[in-house]
Write a structure and sequence with these properties.
7 strands; 241 residues; seven-stranded mixed sheet; globular; 41% helix
């Protein structure tokens, strides 16, 4: 891994694929030459006992040199603030960039969709969850999409402005069946668009399968094949010539 030039790494995968563990290992490796300091950007919110227990377990497992910043919504602001504070304090005196681990984009997009009480807010309602199959108001969908797009662009801008190293963990949620409920479809679509935007800007993209990372950009085919002339069935592909 050519770490000096790889300042933004996206780690994605399904549930329990090992993506968070891999992201933590990457962060530790990149921070090790500069004192092992990592700023962990936590985006989850604890609305029930199970989530509270999960968050506590994750926090307890992090190295003592790591700093946890709770930022359900203001991830770009957290990067700007803590990268600037590290520079002023001289914590980057060895020349190394600030290392941030964002875990995860998935919760962050959820929080952005529900920001300001949109769609009823992110806290579970007293009378149960929203299983309404009625279509969502088009204007609300557009506003939600704009919030997510603006936040993702600001995240990329904050990383570029500060020169920080960022490892962002996200989920692939669009590989299964089409969600039955409009709100779930909106979430799937917006997270998918956010992942595409982040992946396009990332130096590396890793997809985790059963704990094993696949280097997506290294394996990716050319974005567009050569369609300038009809294929000759008797000729091998150009890659094999």
């Amino acid at each position: 891994m050519d770490t000096p030039h790889e300042r933004f790494i996206l780690v994605t995968g399904g549930a329990r694929s090992g993506k968070s563990t891999y992201g933590e290992r990457l962060a530790a490796q990149l921070a090790e030459p500069h004192g092992g300091r990592v700023t962990y950007l936590a985006t989850s919110q604890t609305h029930d006992a199970e989530m509270t227990a999960r968050v506590a377990a994750h926090r307890a497992a992090r190295p003592a040199a790591w700093t946890t910043v709770e930022c359900p919504l203001e991830v770009p602001a957290a990067i700007r603030e803590h990268a600037g504070a590290a520079a002023k304090a001289g914590s980057a005196a060895s020349g190394g960039p600030s290392v941030f681990l964002l875990d995860c984009v998935t919760f962050w997009v959820t929080n952005l969709l529900f920001a300001g009480g949109a769609f009823g807010g992110s806290a579970p309602p007293d009378d149960g969850y929203n299983y309404d199959k009625e279509l969502l108001p088009a204007a609300e969908e557009r506003h939600a999409a704009a919030r997510v797009a603006a936040a993702v662009d600001d995240l990329l801008a904050a990383r570029a402005e500060t020169g920080a190293t960022l490892i962002a963990v996200t989920n692939e949620v669009g590989l299964g069946v089409v969600p039955e409920y409009p709100l779930a479809r909106l979430y799937r679509d917006q997270l998918g668009w956010a992942n595409q935007r982040l992946a396009a800007s990332a130096d590396r993209v890793y997809f985790l399968v059963a704990g094993y990372p696949l280097d997506v950009k290294a394996l990716a085919a050319p974005f567009l094949p050569d369609l300038s002339s009809p294929a000759d069935p008797s000729s091998p592909p150009k890659e094999l010539q």
